[in-house]
Design brief:
mainly beta, Rieske Iron-sulfur Protein, 3-stranded antiparallel β-sheet, 44% strand, binds FE2/S2 (inorganic) cluster
Length: 104
């Protein structure tokens, strides 16, 4: 079952930006690539760094702690094929960005 949670207003995350947001008990990294929103689990798969506070360069987010890099469109780690950061479906409604965190 989808469970859509509003995490930000559209203007909170302009093109080229990454922000950290909260969806109930989940930390979400929200990125805006050329007007398209993408959401990853905000807790880095390496050692739990805050991905949403990382630098976004094109479609690549760099974790601020030790520099692991992920493609924000699918969560794929840029160097290790075996590491993929979980993603969340995203939609925009009435100026709000929502993510589907699914069932618990
Ligand atoms: S915690 Fe993200 S790179 Fe180490």
């Amino acid at each position: 079952m989808p469970r859509w949670i509003s995490i930000a207003r559209v203007e909170d995350c302009p093109p080229g930006a990454a922000i950290e947001a909260v969806a109930e008990d989940r930390i979400v990294a929200l990125m805006n690539v050329d007007g398209q929103f993408h959401a990853l689990d905000g807790v880095c798969s390496h050692q739990g760094g805050p991905l949403g506070k990382g630098a976004l360069n094109g479609k690549i987010i760099t974790c601020p702690w030790h520099g692991w890099q992920y493609n924000v469109t699918d969560g794929q780690h840029c160097l290790s094929a075996s590491v993929r950061q979980p993603t969340f479906p995203v939609k925009v409604e009435e100026g709000q960005v929502l993510v589907d965190i699914g069932d618990e």
